[in-house]
Amino acid sequence: MNRRNIILGTLSGAGVLLAARFTLTGESAEEQQIAPTVSGTSAVDNNLSAELDWHQFAAQGASFPSVSDVLNLSKQEWQERLPPAAFQVLRQEGTERPFTSPLNKEHRDGLYVCSGCDLPLFTSAMKYNSGTGWPSFTSSITNHIGTKRDFKLILPRTEYHCKRCGGHQGHVFKDGPEPTGQRWCNNGVALKFIPA
Question: Has residue 78 got a pLDDT over 80?
Fold first, then answer.
C-alpha cells in the first residue's frame, strides 16, 4: 500500500468518527446541518494534497488544537481575547472592508489558522488571488469548517465557520478556479498566518 492509500484510509476513518460523534451527542438541529464542504473527485484530490501539507506541519513537531477540542467562551471572554475588528467578524458575523488585509499579499508557504482558536483552516497551496479584496482559497482543510445558509443579502449564500470555536470566517462561492470551482472568500482578521 503506498502513502496516498494510507493517508486516504486515515482521512476516511476520521470522517466516519466525526459523523458518529455528531449523531451520538445529539447536537442541535442547526449544528447537524453542518456538512462536509467539498465533494467531487477533483476537489477530493485537491484536498488530499492540502492534507499532505497539513500533516507535514505535524511531522515537524508543530501542534495545533483539534476539532474535538470545542472552544465555548462567553461574549465577555471573547471580547477580552480578540481585538475589536476580529470580534466583530468572528463573533458578530461582520465583514471587513475589502483590500485592507495584509494576508492578501501573503505568498509564503504555511498555514492559515482561525484567529479565534488557532484551528488550521487552509494551507498556502489552497490560496489564490481572486481580485475581490479578501484572502481567497480554492478549498479548505477537510472537516475543519462547517457551513450554513445565509440570507442577509436576500439571495442565499453559503456562510462558513470554524468548527472548533464557531467563529465566522466568510462565504464560499461557486466562481473559483479549477479543479474545485470554489472561492472561499475569507475575512483577513478572522485568520492568522503561520509560515512553514
Answer: yes
